[in-house]
């Protein structure tokens, strides 16, 4: 999936397409990295590309499950374990293959969850967390699906900066390489 979000029709399909496109952008930040590089912290931040992949996958999985189940309780398959803090995600992302496998399974389940949303106006209960207003009881499922895109986009920006700090590769180049438009040994020439 390229840098530009593909065209889509209908509210649910547009929300799904944007979420999946941002998840694809997150995945592209790991393209061609080693196990050591996905754990690298080349900036003052403690975030890593591997940790951001796990976190973004979990965010998408858990929020999409909440939207699909609304107004009931989300069902998260046991294989994904408990939702982790971002620090736990950073610690858990030990190698590229396992991290990408986990991320890809989160994305596939997210896609299935979003496709199963039947009521975009359904009330999704607000989780008990200190960063959510205490008097807010629910959001509409459509808000939750838009939130996935916003949250993943924020963390994709973090991953972009980390990746550029590792080897100078930016998102346009990584998209071309990941999509097979540029071989790994081919020099990148920016367009424009």
The global form is globular
Low-confidence stretches: none
Q: How is the main sheet built? A: 2 strands, antiparallel
Mean pLDDT: 93
Strand content: under 5%
SSE order, one letter for each helix or strand: HHHHHEEHH
CATH architecture: Up-down Bundle
Number of domains: 1
In helices, the fraction of residues equals 40-55%
**Gyration radius, in Å:** 17 Å
* Biggest sheet, spatial arrangement of strands: 1-2
| Number of distinct helices | 7
Which CATH top level class fits? Mainly Alpha
Q: What does the model show?
A:
By secondary structure, the chain is mainly alpha-helical. It has one domain: dinb family like domain (Four Helix Bundle (Hemerythrin (Met), subunit A), Up-down Bundle). Helices cover 55% and strands 3% of the residues. It contains 7 helices and 2 strands. A two-stranded antiparallel ribbon has the order 1-2. The longest helix is centred in the C-terminal third of the chain and has 27 residues.
